[in-house]
């Protein structure tokens, strides 16, 4: 079946994350069911348009519909390139335009409150502090943090080899603070001998999962009394925004974050601009138009 072969291609050749693979499988299975398992080579733009229209009628967000359309676009492109499909019906479908979503960013003060919510006197506390520090210090993705091995990290040089999306690698720096926390964690007696070089372990001394880290961050966010909207990805957005505010150029931010396109990185200019406008409105006496003019006596 073409869908199965496409998923194998994504997993084996493109090396997409398990989360991305599940999204493709869900989107394509839903489409295949919608067209009543009609042979793929017989599908036209009309079936695709009907499918997308049905998604809108289900009150799905524009972002969700756009993602499902992107899954179909990638699938049919694969069929043209690898399975001799004569024409890509998605070429006849206009891309779904959506407004750029400005990701949330939190302040340095909120970051400090979150970090201080961790008790580093325990092995698990040390681990959690290192993970949170890496999110904010180096802007790593959740999947990149859990995949780290000690061979990827040079503590002396304060550099980490990150295996990112599409199996692309990059070198990312980290702070002296992160180096110190990693040293403490690595030298802890509970950092078992049978972890095969894995950096972040669970209580069974096996590689921690993305789900466990996500749950851990939520617990600390709640403990710190911060917004429940703060996630590992928000921490990544936050350091990118703070880098920009401090004068780092977009190209450097792109390389550190591992963005394939500079256009993706440019979203942080919008976050920075929004933050500056908020501060301006709160600080400037004329910003709200409420300044009272004192008459001369």
Task: Give a structural overview.
The protein has 297 residues and is mainly α. It has 2 domains: 2-92, Tyrosine recombinase, N-terminal domain (DNA polymerase, domain 1), CATH 1.10.150.130; 108-281, hpI Integrase, Chain A, CATH 1.10.443. Helix content is 55%, strand content 4%. It has a 3-stranded antiparallel sheet with strand order 1-2-3. The longest helix is centred in the N-terminal third of the chain and has 21 residues, at 62-82. The termini are far apart. The model is unreliable at 273-277 and 286-297 (pLDDT under 50).
User: What is the helix/strand order?
Assistant: HHHHHHHEEEHHHHHH
Q: What is the overall shape?
A: elongated
Mean pLDDT: 82
State the strand order across the main sheet: 1-2-3
The CATH topology name of the largest domain reads hpI Integrase, Chain A
CATH hierarchy class name of the largest domain: Mainly Alpha
Query: How much helix is in the residues?
Result: 40-55%
Structural class: mainly alpha
Computed Rg: 24 Å
Total number of beta strands:
3
What labels would you give this structure?
single chain; mainly alpha; DNA polymerase, domain 1; three-stranded antiparallel sheet; 13 helices; 3 strands; 4% strand; elongated; disordered C terminus
Question: Could you give a short description of this structure?
Answer:
The protein is mainly alpha-helical and 297 residues long. The protein is built from 13 helices and three strands, in the order αααααααβββαααααα.
């Amino acid at each position: 079946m073409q869908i199965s072969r496409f998923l194998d291609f994504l997993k084996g050749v493109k090396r997409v994350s398990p989360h991305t693979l599940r999204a493709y499988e869900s989107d394509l299975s839903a489409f295949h069911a919608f067209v009543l398992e009609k042979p793929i080579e017989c599908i036209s733009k009309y079936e695709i348009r009907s499918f997308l229209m049905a998604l809108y009628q289900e009150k799905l967000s524009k972002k969700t519909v756009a993602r499902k359309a992107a899954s179909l676009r990638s699938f049919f492109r694969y069929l043209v390139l690898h399975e001799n499909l004569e024409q890509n019906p998605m070429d006849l479908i206009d891309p779904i335009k959506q407004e750029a979503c400005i990701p949330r960013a939190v302040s340095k003060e909120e970051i400090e409150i979150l970090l201080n919510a961790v008790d580093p006197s325990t092995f698990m506390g040390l681990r959690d502090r290192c993970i949170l520090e890496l999110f904010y210090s180096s802007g790593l993705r959740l999947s990149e943090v859990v995949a780290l091995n000690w061979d990827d990290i040079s503590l002396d040089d304060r550099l980490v080899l990150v295996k990112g999306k599409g199996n692309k690698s990059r070198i990312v720096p980290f702070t002296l603070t992160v180096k110190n926390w990693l040293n403490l964690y690595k030298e802890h007696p509970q950092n078992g001998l049978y972890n095969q070089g894995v950096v972040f372990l669970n209580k069974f001394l096996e590689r921690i999962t993305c789900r466990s880290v996500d749950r851990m961050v939520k617990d600390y966010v709640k403990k710190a009394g911060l917004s429940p909207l703060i996630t590992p990805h928000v921490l990544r957005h936050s350091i990118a925004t703070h880098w920009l505010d401090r004068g780092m150029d977009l190209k450097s931010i792109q390389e550190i974050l591992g963005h394939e396109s500079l256009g993706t990185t440019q979203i942080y200019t919008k976050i920075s601009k929004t933050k500056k406008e908020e501060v301006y409105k709160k600080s400037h006496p004329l910003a709200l138009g409420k300044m009272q003019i004192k008459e001369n006596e």
